[in-house]
Design goal:
Layout lengths: L2 E8 L2 E8 L4 H8 L18 E4 L3 E4 L12 E3 L12 H8 L9 H14 L5 H7 L10 H16 L4
Parallel strand pairs: 1-5
Antiparallel strand pairs: 1-2, 3-4, 3-5
Helix pairs in contact: 2-5
Bound molecules: FE2/S2 (inorganic) cluster (2 copies).
Length: 161
C-alpha cells in the first residue's frame, strides 16, 4: 500500500504523519494522533459520531474521508473548541440544556451544530432537525439537542445578553 507524508493542522497544531492510501481521517485522528474525542460509531457514514470540521466550519465524516486527501488542511475536533478555559457557546448550550446523556454522539453533534449555525445563524426547528440528519443519538435525546441548538443560536447572536 502506498504511503503518504502529510501535514494536518489539528486544533491549531501542525502534525506530520505518514498514512497509507486507505487510512481514514478518523483512524488517523484517533489512532495516530490521539484525538479520541472524535468517535467511531458505524464507520460507514451513517451516524455522524466521527464528524469533524475542515478549514473552519465545514463538517465532514472522518470515517468517509481519506487522510491523504486532507494534506495541508485544518481540522477541528471537539477537543479544540474551548479557549482560555471557556467552553465554546455551543458546548455550553448543550450542557445547560441537559442535551447530553451518554455523550457518545455529542462531539459530532456539537461540531455539526457549529457548521449549521455558520451557514444559518437563526435556524428554525425544522432546519435544525434537517441539519442534524446524519447525526444519530442512540440515547434519543433529540428534543433536548434541538433546544440546545436553538439556545446556542441565541447565544451566538447575542440575544438576551
Ligand atoms: S463513524 Fe462516521 S458516520 Fe458513523
Ligand atoms: S447522548 Fe448518548 S448517543 Fe447521544
Amino acid at each position: 500500500m502506498k504511503k503518504h507524508a502529510i501535514t494536518l493542522t489539528v486544533n491549531g497544531e501542525e502534525r506530520d504523519l505518514i498514512v497509507s492510501s486507505n487510512r481514514t481521517l478518523l483512524d488517523a485522528l484517533r489512532d495516530d494522533l490521539g484525538f479520541t474525542d472524535t468517535k467511531y460509531g458505524c464507520g460507514t457514514g451513517e451516524c455522524g459520531a466521527c464528524t469533524v470540521l475542515v478549514d473552519g466550519t465545514t463538517s465532514i465524516n472522518g470515517c468517509l474521508t481519506l487522510a491523504a486527501t486532507m494534506d495541508g488542511r485544518s481540522i477541528t475536533t471537539a477537543a479544540g473548541l474551548a479557549h482560555d478555559g471557556a467552553l465554546h457557546p455551543v458546548q455550553q448550550a448543550f450542557i445547560d440544556n441537559d442535551a447530553i446523556q451518554c455523550g457518545f454522539c455529542i462531539p459530532g453533534m456539537v461540531l455539526k451544530t457549529i457548521s449549521i449555525l455558520a451557514d444559518n445563524p437563526r435556524p428554525t426547528e425544522d432546519e435544525i432537525r434537517h441539519g442534524l440528519e446524519g447525526s444519530i443519538c442512540r440515547c434519543t435525546g433529540y428534543a433536548k439537542i434541538v433546544e440546545a441548538v436553538q439556545d446556542a443560536s441565541h447565544r451566538m447572536a447575542g440575544v438576551g445578553e
